[in-house]
Write a structure and sequence with these properties.
By secondary structure, this protein is mostly helical. The protein has one domain. It has 11 helices and 3 strands; from the N terminus they run H-H-H-H-E-E-H-H-H-H-E-H-H-H. It has a 3-stranded antiparallel beta sheet with strand order 1-2-3. A hairpin with a 2-residue loop joins strand 1 and strand 2. Helix 2 runs antiparallel to helix 4 and helix 6 packs antiparallel against helix 8. The longest helix has 30 residues. It is globular and about 55 Å long.
Length: about 240
């Protein structure tokens, strides 16, 4: 628990150094997300495939790019890419566990508050979301998407620790990404004949309690996995 407290203080210090840019990024994120999701809420006009893409980008990837450049992944030397802030903090007497946890907490500030505001406002502003879901269903739907955002989005936060990027690792990454897209396409658009967003609405309607429990469990397991992954990666990388 002490490590988490220190990690929180470290993340807060990082945010204070760029609080104006943080607020600006949150406002821009919300404005773009409102526009995209309210327009795209008309599924019959835009299509559920596009809706899925927007939701995944907004909940899983966009928050990372709200961070100032100095806190994002960038080339350090050779094949090593990492957040320059991590390289700097590695030189200080900070425990590895604290540094690792601070990456997840800092990312959470960029993702969770604006996403929660977005989800609440969408239901209030857009009649399309109210027509598709009751308040209870929408709460479950929101919990599912926040869990998806954490489970996938924390992979971006974990990359702050560092990655070796060369032609081999990039090729493997592309194969993994396109392979994952192909699997999702086959499952949701061929086997289930449904989109990801529409599927999450369905399970939120049919199994609200079970959906929330599974979302919480998947979130906890994801956090444990990324903590383990970052600790292992940090020991493997040469930051000098």
């Amino acid at each position: 628990m002490q490590d988490w407290k220190q990690a929180y203080q470290l993340a807060i210090t990082e945010l204070r150094t760029s609080k104006i840019r943080y607020l600006g990024s949150v406002i821009l994120y919300l404005l773009i997300s409102f526009f995209v999701l309210i327009i795209d809420g008309k599924a019959s006009t835009v299509g559920w495939t596009i809706n899925d893409i927007f939701l995944i980008i907004i909940f899983c990837f966009a928050p990372y790019y709200m961070k100032p450049k100095e806190f994002q992944l960038q080339k350090i030397n050779g094949d090593l890419w990492a957040a320059s802030s991590v390289i700097l903090l590695k030189q200080l007497p900070i425990k590895e566990n604290v540094l690792i946890r601070s990456r997840l907490i800092a990312y959470s500030f960029y993702s969770l508050p604006p996403q929660i505001i977005l989800l609440v406002a969408l239901y209030v502003i857009s009649p399309n979301y109210r027509e598709m879901m009751t308040p209870t269903t929408y709460v479950t739907f929101s919990v599912i998407w926040v869990a998806i955002g954490i489970s996938i989005g924390f992979s971006m936060a974990a990359s702050d620790i560092g990655e070796l990027m060369n032609s081999k690792t990039m090729s493997i990454a592309f194969v993994y990404i396109f392979g994952s897209i192909a699997v999702l396409y086959v499952i949701f658009y061929r086997l289930l004949d449904d989109g990801i967003a529409k599927w999450t609405i369905s399970i939120a309607q049919e199994w609200p309690f079970l959906s929330i429990i599974i979302s919480i469990i998947s979130t906890i397991l994801s956090i444990k996995y990324y903590l383990h992954y970052m600790k292992k990666k940090m020991k493997k990388l040469d930051y000098l």
